Amino acid sequence: MNSPTQLAALVQAAGTIGEIAVLTALCMLGVALTVIRLPGTWLIVATAAGYGWYGDWHAISLLTVGVLIGIAVVGEAGEFVASMLTAKKAGAGKRAMWGAFIGGFAGMFIFTIPLPLIGTIIGAVFGCFLGALIGELTAHDDVRKGIRVGKAAAIGYVLGMAFKIAIAFLMAGLLLGSAVVTAIDSPKDAVPNTTQVSVD
Questions:
Q1: Domains of the chain: which residue ranges?
Q2: Which of 90, 121, 139, 175 could be joined to 152 by an S-S link, Cβ 3.0–4.6 Å?
């Protein structure tokens, strides 16, 4: 009778499904945090490292964690470069760039409107525009240039944020894909065959 093996397989399958459900939830949380400019990509890295350690680096290897760290660094750099280059192209000075950075962060709390995630993004974009405008006006008394710099900073913020969100989705897909592929391959080897063959 093969019921002990079947029971063990069912228990293992249930555990694996539960683990992947938790991974999925944490990855989606990481993406959501990235949207509001919190370290969501690093939450995904930490999730991968934790799950890898939990599974003795079988489901998630150290190489996979290293790749995720590299992708996260690219996301951070890309977000910063997109925002800075766009603002600088419009003639923004250091004060405007710092104003855009501070305004983007403060805008998430001050100018957020009551819409899930989208409201926070709108507040951050407006805060970025306003911060760059004020920063530029403290350096040069030119309202038109200040508005131009503010618009460029806001556009750069959106481009950088879109790039980083795409990076977060890529990281989540890589982590979940690795976990699912390993889960599909593991049951065949993980559950011992206890079927007894009778000899006449």
A1: 3-190
A2: 90
